[in-house]
Predict the structure of Acyltransferase.
Amino acid sequence: MICILASYYGTGSSILSALQDLFWLSKSKVEKQLQIISVLQWVLTFLIMGVACTLILMYILCTDCWAIAALYLAWLVFDWNTPKKGGRRSQWVRNWAIWRYFRDYFPIRLVKTHNLLTTRNYIFGYHPHGIMGLGAFCNFSTEATGVGQKFPGIRPYLATLAGNFRMPILRDYLMSGGICPVNRDSIDYILSKNGSGNAIIIVVGGAAESLNCTPGKNSVTLKNRKGFVKLALRHGADLVPVYSFGENEVYKQVIFEEGSWGRWVQKKFQKHIGFAPCIFHGRGLFSSNTWGLLPYSKPITTVVGEPITIPKIDNPSQREVDFYHSIYVDSLIKLFDKYKSKFGLPETEVLEVN
C-alpha cells in the first residue's frame, strides 16, 4: 500500500512538474511572439507609416467622414513648427511595455562609461547607421534600456530626416519618443532655447553610411562629416562619441560597387530626396530560415563614450572645426578599440573611417 501511495504521489508530482514545464514553455513562446510583433510594428512604421497615413487621410477627405480629416489638417497647420521647437515628447509613450519586448528581441543594451553634467548640452555622434538605426531608436527614443536612469537629468533627442515630420500621424508618433528633425533650426532651438541637459543624437554617417553596412564590417562615414562639429562649437555643446556594436549585423544588404548603375541610382535618391534606397533582407515572420523584413536576432550593444569639452565660438574657423573634428575621430577610434573585444570582435579588428 505504501509503495502504491508512493508511486501515486510520485506520478502526481511528475505530472505537476510536466505541467509547470509546459506552462513556462508557453510563456516563453508568447514572449517571443510579442517581441516579434513589437519589432515588426517599428519596421513597418519606418518603411510605410508616413505614406500609408497620408493616403488614408486623403481617402477620408473623399468620404462622409471628411470633417475628421479636415480637423486634423487644420491642427497640422497650427502645429507645423512644433518639431522645430523640441517636439512634444511623452514619457508615457517612451515607457510603453512594447519597447521592452523590442529590446529583448535582439537584445539591445546601453553601456555608460562616463557621467554627463546636467549643466551642459551635448551632441552625441552615433555610429554606425546600419539599415534602420535600431540601436539608436531603442536606446534614445524609448526608456527600454534605461537611458533616463543611466543619465539622470539628460533629455535625449534623436535627430532624423526632416521629411518624416511632414507626414501626418507619423510626425506625432515620432515626436512622442523625443525624435526631432536633423536640421539647423531644430538643433539651434534645442541647444540655445531649451535650457541645459539636452543631448541631440545625430547619426553622423547618414544615408551614405547605410549603403555600405553589412554583417562583419565596421566602417563609418566621418572624414568629411564636420557640420555636427561646427554646430557643437557654435553652441558650446560637448561632443560624445557613441559606437553601437552589432548594428550592422541585423540585416544583410546587396552592396553596389562605386560606379555601378545601382550605386548611381542610390546616390541620386540620396541627393534629391534625402535617403538612399537599399536592397536588404532579414528573417521571415514565421521562420528565421526564410527571408523577410524582420531583423535578425543579433545583440546590439551601444557604448556611450567620454564627452569632449567644446568651447563656445560663435563663428568657428575651418581650422578650429578641423581641430575638434580630429579629436572626435581619435576618441571614436579609441572607444571602438577599448570595447571591441568585450563585444565579440577580435583584437585585430580595425575601425574603418571613410
